[in-house]
Write a structure and sequence with these properties.
This protein has 4 helices and 9 strands; from the N terminus they run H-E-H-E-H-E-E-E-H-E-E-E-E. It has helices at about 5-10, 20-35, 50-60, 110-120, and strands at about 15, 40-50, 65-75, 85-90, 100-105, 125-135, 150-155, 160, 175-179. Strand 2, helix 3 (about 50-60) and strand 3 form a beta-alpha-beta unit. The radius of gyration is 16 Å and the shape is globular.
Amino acid sequence: MNRPDLATALRDGDLIHDRTVLRAAISRMGAEISRALEDKSAVFLTIMQGGLVFAGQLATEIDAALEFDYVHATRFRGSTEGGTLQWLRRPSTPLAGRIVLLVDDILDEGHTLKAIRDWCHEQGAAQVMLAVLCEKRHGRTVPGLSADFVGVEVPDRYVFGYGMDFHEQGRNLPGIHAL
């Protein structure tokens, strides 16, 4: 398999948000989520793999009782075009009657987020809130889906870094880049 070169993508792309901007956005989101949860507890459900970097930082900014679990579902599997949703791992924490905070890297078109949100409701979740590090505003989002908490907006371009991959590379970059 001949993967595109990350160094070339970094050279040809643009830095959209640096670490300082992202950390400030995550801190703000943590305060917003803390206020929304007040004295309630929630299941903090990270969507892997993209949500990992963001979720770990967001969790430390939330002043509420959280129970952690994760879900791994994908439509991409290293591709840039989504296909059928594949469930690689469903959460083991019971969701019935609980508040669920779904945490992911990006809200783009939202097919995966919607499927996971709907599954949480099917499991009996009392409330499902969506927190995303970034959101593309482009008019192609699944109808009826919006994030409750958004860190930053990104342009309608291929974005990577800070959890988002460039052909399975670059998730650990300290900023968000766009091609």
